[in-house]
TrEMBL record:
It comes from Vagococcus lutrae. GO terms for biological process: phosphorelay signal transduction system. The modification 4-aspartylphosphate is found at residue 55. This is Response regulator. It is found in: Cytoplasm.
């Protein structure tokens, strides 16, 4: 796999690149860029880049704006935000852009190793999901894609997706159940809970429970906690404490 490291500090880039090379076998090539402009050029030149480490504070444009542009090249790109800002607002914006993780400088080697392990697990999961999706009907695959993109919207329903796809709700429900073994609501709820678990275990963010619920489609904190406990046998607070 190919990784792009974007930071305007040469010494930091060099040190992180060595650390990545030392602790991974799945990353074959590391490209480097010292600005957003150079990063975009690298992505155009190397379209197989699937992972990007992005510094928020770049000399030409804001790192968050760069992330938006990187996502236009490859919506599935795994992006890790690296920042010297211990700023909740930055973290919130990064999560809204569906970044994989958010880490603060200076980075401890142990944190980087843990992050690389998480990336490897994510890649394995994506590969497994891709194989499964090849066995799905086109309708179910499209439905799952919509859930992936819109799970944070509280008004996402079987009815709204069926209307978007110009199909009958009953037909869509039967297709999804046949292909995945889950009803639309079950699939959506499971997906949202998994996303919530990811946010709860990202120790750098310290998001309030209510905020996490809102970001996965549950604006009512009491309902979020109840649904979360039904699926995990723990409240969100309990789950966070044991991780």
């Amino acid at each position: 796999m190919e990784l792009l490291l974007i930071d305007d500090e040469p010494i930091f880039r060099k040190g992180l690149a060595k650390l990545i090379q030392k602790n991974t076998t799945y990353i074959e090539t590391i490209y480097q860029a010292d600005s957003a402009k150079e990063a975009l050029n690298q992505v155009k030149e190397h379209p197989n880049v699937t992972i990007a480490f992005v510094d928020i504070n770049l000399p030409d444009i804001n790192g968050l704006d760069l992330i938006k542009q990187l996502k236009t090249f490859n919506p599935q790109m795994l992006i890790v935000v690296i920042s010297g800002y211990d700023d909740f607002a930055y973290a919130r914006q990064a999560i809204q852009l569906n970044v994989f993780d958010y880490l603060l400088k200076p980075l401890a080697p142990s944190d980087v190793r843990l992050l690389l392990q998480k990336i490897e697990q994510k890649i394995l999961h994506q590969t497994s999901s891709q194989v499964k999706n090849e066995q799905l009907s086109a309708l179910s695959a499209t439905t799952i894609h919509i859930i992936n993109e819109r799970y944070a919207q509280p008004d996402l329903t079987l009815t709204s997706v069926a209307a978007q796809l110009f199909v009958d709700t009953s037909y869509l429900s039967k297709q999804l159940k046949r292909d995945t073994g889950k009803s639309f609501n079950d699939y959506l709820t499971t997906f949202r809970i998994e996303k919530a678990k990811e946010l709860l275990t990202q120790s750098d963010l310290h998001w309030p429970i209510q905020e996490i619920g809102e970001r996965v489609g549950y604006p009512n904190p009491h309902y979020f906690s109840r649904i979360f406990k039904q699926h995990t046998q723990k409240t969100p607070t309990e789950y966070r404490q044991i991780r």
